[in-house]
Amino acid sequence: LTCGRSYLISEGVLILEKPVEENIDPNIRGTIAPECWQVFINITVRCLKLEPDERPTIGEVEVELEHALSLQEKADFRHTDGHYTLLSKTIIKLGPE
């Protein structure tokens, strides 16, 4: 298990060394509203905390993802062409803050 965790963290570091926006599935790139994306980033940062007690529960993750979905639906209603541009380049650092 320790080896598996180490591997997961190593893979996470490789993925997170570049802006998170570059890891978006090309099939959905441009369809995520910025306000929804920010919720994803916030929950991702919390889920990747090294200390288990600093990570959200699965219930908290569910609530945040439902909130993101709600924001996306509202944005899609207002923004009828369905194309969004994410202007940020978010890099998530693993380790102590």
Structural notes for this entry:
The protein is mostly helical and 97 residues long. The chain has one domain. Helix content is 52%, strand content 0%. Helix 2 (34-47) packs antiparallel against helix 3 (58-78). The protein starts with a helix and ends in a 19-residue tail after the last helix.
Q: Secondary-structure blueprint of this entry?
A:
Elements: H1 2-16, H2 34-47, H3 58-78
Helix pairs in contact: 2-3
Offer a quick outline of the entry.
This protein is mostly helical and 97 residues long. The protein has helices at 2-16, 34-47, 58-78.
Task: Output the keywords.
single chain; 97 residues; mainly alpha; flat; disordered N terminus; Kinase-like_dom_sf
Mean pLDDT equals 76
Unreliable spans: 1-7
**From N to C, what is the helix and strand string?**
HHH
Separation, N- and C-terminal Cα atoms: 25 Å
Number of separate helices: 3
Number of domains: 1
**Overall body shape:** flat
Radius of gyration over all CA atoms, rounded:
15 Å
Count all strands and give the number: 0
Derived structural class: mainly alpha
User: What fraction of residues sit in β-strands?
Assistant: under 5%
How would you sum up the major sheet?
Answer: none
Amount of helix: 40-55%
InterPro entries: Kinase-like_dom_sf
Organism: Cajanus cajan (Pigeon pea)
Protein name: Receptor-like protein kinase ANXUR2
